[in-house]
Design goal:
- Keywords: ATP-binding, Fatty acid metabolism, Ligase, Lipid metabolism, Nucleotide-binding.
- The protein has one domain: Rossmann fold.
- With 188 residues, the protein is of the alpha/beta class.
- The two termini are 35 Å apart.
- The protein has eight helices and seven strands.
- It is 46% helix and 16% strand.
- The longest helix has 18 residues.
């Protein structure tokens, strides 16, 4: 099934294995800096745009109700650059800062993962099952400067946020708004 979806999947797999083996045998230099978003995602977007790679979705999400989000490599690259700008500019984060994301697996979860990679931020993922005590511990231990959640989970998180001395910004994913929270969709 994946072969039909991706077309020449075996060729791509062989290229990846070949590249890995050449690095392993010290035939290729490891880059001093590697960023998945710019070195892989943006490269695949460029190859698609130039017609050298067939267009396939970079991201395809479907929920239980049948809602669907599908992004090309170019769209994911563009959205992740915008999200990285939101994190860097609106949230005031700098390379190496830590970000806690307490979100269900919505498209923005993956978008923020790529945006954090792009901006050099350390993403600390958390599930919606974390308790207030869990979140408080993670905030203090990580010295996170930003927390991201959705409008449903935000009220539960707010009880522990005043105790976090390092937190600079709070970002909400969704349609709703809350006092003291920035809204990702509005900022994008």
């Amino acid at each position: 099934p994946s072969r039909a979806f991706h077309g020449n999947n075996s060729l791509l797999t062989a290229q990846i294995i070949s590249y890995y083996e050449s690095i392993n045998q010290c035939k290729k230099e490891l880059p001093e800096y590697f960023n998945f978003a710019s070195d892989v995602l943006d490269e695949w977007a460029r190859l698609e745009k130039d017609g050298r790679k067939p267009a396939n979705p970079a991201f395809w999400w479907v929920n239980d109700e049948g809602q669907e989000v599908k992004w090309t490599f170019e769209e994911l690259g563009s959205l992740s650059r915008k999200a990285a700008n939101v994190l860097s500019e609106a949230c005031g984060l700098q390379r190496g800062d830590r970000v806690i994301a307490v979100l269900p697996r919505v498209p923005e979860w993956w978008l923020l993962n790529v945006a954090c990679m792009r901006a050099g931020l350390v993403l600390i993922p958390g599930t919606s099952q974390l308790t207030a005590k869990d979140i408080s511990y993670r905030l203090q231990a990580s010295k996170a400067k930003c927390i991201i959640t959705n409008d449903t989970l935000a009220p539960a998180l707010e009880s522990v946020l005043p105790g976090s001395q390092f937190l600079k910004s709070k970002l909400i994913v969704g349609q709703g708004s809350r006092d003291g929270w920035l809204n990702l969709k509005e900022l994008l």
